[in-house]
Design goal:
Largest sheet: 7 strands, mixed
Radius of gyration: 14 Å
Structural class: mainly beta
Number of helices: 0
Number of strands: 11
Helix content: under 10%
Shape: globular
Length: about 130
């Protein structure tokens, strides 16, 4: 079965940088979309970034564009989220997600959490002032 495991969370201070990692197992990753979401106190998870694995094309939420970078590592079956200039409002549980995107139903990765079938358990990022 597909398994996604996030790692790299921790306790940071304003202005710090941090890279989160997501390890993928259980299936080929060639045709999928991968994304990062986060959730604080809201019921709805907030979209951050997505990558089309086939060609590493990326998309970002306006709120993190220029600060966060999603990056694939094909040889190691990993996807990373590099976060710079962290702020207290970045405090949340960060989740890795996969959309199988069979038959290229969604050529462009979605920003809707309902379009992702597999999720990791999350990793906590806490940013203090």
């Amino acid at each position: 079965q597909v398994q996604l495991i996030e790692s790299g969370g921790g306790l940071l201070r304003t202005g710090d940088s941090l890279t989160l990692s997501c390890a993928v197992s259980g299936r080929s990753i060639t045709g999928v979309h991968m994304a990062w979401f986060r959730q604080g106190t809201e019921a709805e998870r907030e979209f951050l970034a997505a990558s089309r694995w086939l060609d590493a094309n990326t998309s970002y939420a306006d709120s993190v564009k220029g600060r966060f970078t999603i990056r694939r590592d094909n040889s190691n079956r990993m996807v990373h989220l590099q976060m710079n200039a962290l702020k207290p409002e970045d405090t949340a549980v960060y989740y890795c997600a996969m959309d199988e995107a069979s038959g290229r139903t969604r050529w462009a990765p979605s920003d809707d959490q309902r379009d992702y079938q597999y999720w990791g358990q999350g990793t906590q990022v806490t940013v203090s002032s």
